[in-house]
Amino acid sequence: MSVLVVGISHKSAPVALLERLALDAEGVSKLIADVAGCDHVVEATVISTCNRLEVYADVDRFHGSIEDVSRLLVDRAGASTDALVPHLYVHYDDGAVSHLFHVAAGLDSMVVGEGQILGQAREALRLGQEMGTVGPALNVLFQQALRVGKRSHAETGIDSAAPSLVTAALHRTTEPHGGVAGASVVIVGAGSMAALATATVTRMGAGRVVVANRSLENAERLAAEHGAEAVPLASLDLALADADVLITCTGATGILVTAPMLATARGARTDRLTIIDLALPHDVDPDVVALPGVELTGLAQLAEMLDDSDAIRDVADVRRIVTQELSAFVSARHAASVTPTVVALRTMATGVVESEMERLGSRLPDLDPGIRAEVQRTVHRVAEKLLHQPTVRVKELANETGAVSYATALAELFALDPESVDAVTRVGVPASDLSTEPAGGELS
Asked: Is 113 left (phi over 0), alpha (psi -120 to 50) or beta?
């Protein structure tokens, strides 16, 4: 079996489309049940947040599973296939593992390092377990992902990465021109990063603070927390008319602030407008820098400016942790994938030895018991020595890249019964059973 992820998030789709896929608790449970009911799906669960909807499934067929899961998401969005599918992303097998580890560590979040996603991943695991749709494959995967997330927060300062980024960005871009104190600030967005930006500029003594967002209700909620004003995104041009600082941090996939729009909003103004674009992809048209007094700083520039900052180092440290954990998990997973074949091979060898000993007993019924025992031990040792190197090598080769399935080759060479291998897989033999005794040990 292999893990498949089909999802959509703030990085792949516009907010309007994400909103159409927003699910309540009942909707999440229904989606999990529907995915689990697909022909090629063995296990399933769903991570659902305001910024992402991801289906995780253990599947026995790649293409058929993608088609089934994608169709379920299209149905829920109430959109045409052509409208939704281009915004979906797919990760498979090791790629799916890597994606979940990055998600759990907070590296894929709109606010890098935010810890809320850990609880959401834990809820996906719990719900799948409760519904009986999560089995050994997804249980091990999610448990390990939660471990990666916990380790990332425990061993680094990733929790403070986003606040540090916002604060440092404001200091670096506004301090040379008088700072934020008393300035007119416009913040576009109402998510976690926008909340951090609003709190930060308020704390730094900004004058007028305006929050603009596609959802006026969300803008009003954020503005109320900090004594700011709220306007719909359609009124952004009016808010920009007297802005000194503009901070954008939405999940939109298109440009929100164009050069012509900003030129019209500013009119004859030539005084400085500092723009900090924290969005990915960016919200602001790079051409705005051609306008008098406009200075634009994006994430790429911030990374260069802050390359010695704790926030950047923490993100790098988390990436190293994810890489380490991913390598270890994938290696163990590949090694475990050959376990059924190795166990079936050793079981076959044991059966051959026992069969030959029975034949010996029938042909030499008066054989001395001591001699019989010594013959049995000798035959066991011969069989073990013959199998030792192939089983050791198949474990080593399982972690090499390439199209060759060494477990399959081993099964073909020794003519193993596919039913025997499948039976071991269904039972779920622990990875420890993959280990082989040193040459000379007995088969068990």
From this structure: left
Whether the Cβ atoms of residue 350 and residue 379 lie closer than 8 Å to each other: no
Q: Per-block average pLDDT, block size 10, for the chain (444 residues)?
A: 89 80 91 96 92 93 91 89 90 94 88 80 96 95 96 86 72 83 94 87 94 93 94 95 93 84 95 88 90 89 62 81 90 71 80 89 90 91 84 69 59 67 47 37 35
Of the candidates 356, 391, 388, which has an alpha carbon nearest to the alpha carbon of residue 375?
356
- Ranges of beta strands (E only) in 41-87 are 41-48, 52-59
CA pair distance 71, 184, nearest whole angstrom:
47
Q: Hey, is 284 helix, strand or coil?
A: strand
d(CA 349, CA 144): 35
* Cβ atoms of 106 and 150 closer than 8 Å: no
Residue 175 burial (CB count, 10 A): 10
The token duo for 434 is 């993959």
Residues belonging to the active site: 50
Question: What is residue 438's predicted lDDT score, i.e. its pLDDT?
Answer: 35
Residue 442 to residue 346: CA distance in whole angstroms? 10
